[in-house]
Amino acid sequence: MAWYDWFSSIYDTSLEQLYRSARLSAAEHLQLETATRVLDVPAGTGQSLDVLVPRLPSNAELVAIDASTGMLTRAKQRAERNGYANRVQFLVEDAGNLSDIGTFDRLHVFLGLTAMTEYPSVFERLWGLLRPGAIAVVVDVHNARPGLQGHLVNWIARADVRRPVWEPLQRCSEQYERVELPKDARYGGALWLARGRKPLTPRVDAMPLRPEIGPQGAGGGTKISDPAVPTRHS
Ligand SMILES: C[S@@+](CC[C@H](N)C(=O)[O-])C[C@H]1O[C@@H](n2cnc3c(N)ncnc32)[C@H](O)[C@@H]1O
Q1: Is 110's C-beta closer than 6 angstroms to any atom of ligand 1?
Q2: Which of 9, 188, 192, 217 is in Cβ range 3.0-4.6 Å of 153 for a Cys bridge?
Q3: Is residue 214 part of a domain?
Q4: Is residue 221, in this structure, part of any structural domain at all?
Q5: In the predicted model, what is the mean pLDDT of the chain?
Q6: Ligand 1 in contact with 116 (CB < 6 A)?
Q7: Is the four-CA dihedral 194, 196, 202, 203 of positive or negative sign?
Q8: What is the domain count for the chain?
Q9: Domain that holds residue 98
Q10: CB-ligand 1 contact for 66 (6 Å cutoff)
């Protein structure tokens, strides 16, 4: 994770303001007031922790994971600086290898999956850590035909904004919705937020995908009607 270790040194000065309101939307969609155990992955320099931790009940736990030591060191420093280090457990770990960390009732994945080539299998692993009824929120950028700014974002973040990284959540969750967040040319594409709930009984792969349903939720945004996602059997 040498690149991200380096990127961590400029990450906050270049990007902290740009994503602030989207982080608030993600926190609101997670309904943290009833959370007991929250997984934030990849946590990066911990910018989201500033909005997640204050919304947690006092007895809730938050586990922040990132594969980059440089990123997570800054996240820890942020938590100490802002007085909530005792509320967060930090783990340097590849999201695709997570195991033995218990189960969670909230999952927060902000600007993470487009940076992972193997995002379907990573998401599947994260989903496997969730309890039935858990809420997952994913925020990322999408641009099917990136222009100059999209290519710049891909290069600096080692990401690919063409990846349809909402699809695994759409496929396996219920009460799924996806909204477009307010635009900014600096994102390099459309910034969107997807939310879904883990069913009490797992969906089978052959279950037909439903159109998006449910309330728009806090934070607003324009609802996106995703095209049907092929199941594994198709
Ligand atoms: C664009 S940054 C986003 C960081 C943070 N989520 C945020 O919202 O600011 C992408 C992050 O993904 C992390 N990352 C990339 N691949 C990963 C993996 N396989 N497992 C865990 N973290 C990973 C990088 O270290 C980096 O911190």
Answers
A1: yes
A2: 188
A3: no
A4: no
A5: 91
A6: yes
A7: negative
A8: 1
A9: 2-202
A10: yes
